[in-house]
Amino acid sequence: MRTRNAVARDYYGILGVSREASDDEIKRAYRKLARQFHPDVNPDPEAQEKFKDINAAYEVLSDDRKRQIVDLGGDPLAPGGGAAGPGGPGGAGPFVGFQDIMDAFFGGATGSRGPRPRTRPGADAILRLELDLNETAFGVEAPITVDTAVLCTTCSGAGTAAGTHLATCEACGGRGEVQSVQRTFLGQVVSARPCTVCQGHGTTIPHPCPTCAGEGRVRTRRSLTVKIPAGVEDGMRIRLAQQGEVGPGGGTAGDLYVEIHERPHDVYSRKGDDLHCRVTVPMTAAALGTRLTIKTLDSEETVDVKAGTQPGSTMRLRARGVPHLRGTGRGDLYVHLDVRTPTKLDADQERMLREFAKTRGEEVAELSKQGGFFSRMRDAFNGHG
């Protein structure tokens, strides 16, 4: 078995990378060599020693402070040379689980991922807006009030008090994660976890902004005006770009979505861009014909009811509905006619109506039919026939 020299080891040479190699290049080289010399893959004792050297080299070169010691000609893992703490090669760190081992070889928690940014995009917001039919049909500029997070004007999103700045986290040295080398039954494994002191940011806020407590944003109520286009329907959403929640650290605001809810109308019902209404006409008007004045959403129209119109008839008024949201033109208005039959008649009205029925031969025919029908029913119950 080989013995280690007292001189500083060539950690770059162990991983086969140049002294100018990036963090990603070091990580790729480590993973490649770790798979090649892992004891489960290569049981040769020399390979096991090589595997330990690979882990030590990666521990050093993935840590900015230790790498700096190497670049200055030192060995951070040598006695008195800035070696790692109890979790490093010189100490017997705690046993780690199988998932930690898999992460080490296949890109899980190992490797320098860098600090997590404090500034992140904000979330979208949604607001319900109730409108009348006339407003959805022809459009309106509606005032709205929204409660969202906005940029803190005291610190302009920095999160720090006036005259102060972010400080590099002493626990992780600004890397946002803490690395350790642990001994397992497979050998030594390098693992990395987010720093609990700075929550992975790499920096701390010694003096938070008194207004936002370091968030870089505060909640407030804002008043806006949203332009509703003509022809929108119930359930549609209108997007207001970057009018939603400001992100942590003063990040870019999300979008605000205004969801349309159309109130029921007293007269009209809507199906797409078409409107429907019901109009009651007397029986005599339906029989003789008449003229109606229909009040549409934006005008008055005179329509002729033809003589002899039957109950349930429908009249169509073209281009008197809702304007199309996309394109030109409008939907139609459908007028459904309900013919009303009188429920109470005085003596003169009943006499005139009977005389009218006689002239049409309707009353006699109905009476004869009813008489024949009831006579047959009576005979059936009395046992005649």
UniProtKB/TrEMBL annotation:
Primary subcellular site in the record, as a coarse category: cytoplasm
The keyword Chaperone is assigned to this record: yes
Q: What detail does the entry give on cofactor binding?
A: Binds 2 Zn(2+) ions per monomer.
Query: Which chain segments does UniProt annotate as zinc-finger regions (CR-type)?
Result: 139-221
Taxonomy, superkingdom:
Bacteria
SUPFAM superfamilies, A to Z? Chaperone J-domain, DnaJ/Hsp40 cysteine-rich domain, HSP40/DnaJ peptide-binding domain
**J domain: residues covered:** 10-74
Concerning InterPro entries, the annotation shows: DnaJ, DnaJ_C, DnaJ_domain, HSP40/DnaJ_pept-bd, HSP_DnaJ_Cys-rich_dom, HSP_DnaJ_Cys-rich_dom_sf, J_dom_sf
Kindly list the cofactors needed: Zn(2+)
CXXCXGXG motif repeat placement? 152-159, 169-176, 195-202, 209-216
Give the keywords, sorted. Chaperone, Cytoplasm, DNA replication, Metal-binding, Repeat, Stress response, Zinc, Zinc-finger
| Compositionally skewed regions (Gly residues) per UniProt | 79-93
Indicate yes or no for the key word rRNA-binding. Answer: no
Q: Region (Disordered): which ranges?
A: 74-93
- Report residues binding Zn(2+) 1: C152, C155, C209, C212
Summary of subunit composition and partner proteins: Homodimer.
What's the family? Belongs to the DnaJ family.
Reported function: Participates actively in the response to hyperosmotic and heat shock by preventing the aggregation of stress-denatured proteins and by disaggregating proteins, also in an autonomous, DnaK-independent fashion. Unfolded proteins bind initially to DnaJ; upon interaction with the DnaJ-bound protein, DnaK hydrolyzes its bound ATP, resulting in the formation of a stable complex. GrpE releases ADP from DnaK; ATP binding to DnaK triggers the release of the substrate protein, thus completing the reaction cycle.
Note what the entry says on domains: The J domain is necessary and sufficient to stimulate DnaK ATPase activity. Zinc center 1 plays an important role in the autonomous, DnaK-independent chaperone activity of DnaJ. Zinc center 2 is essential for interaction with DnaK and for DnaJ activity.
For this entry, the protein name equals: Chaperone protein DnaJ
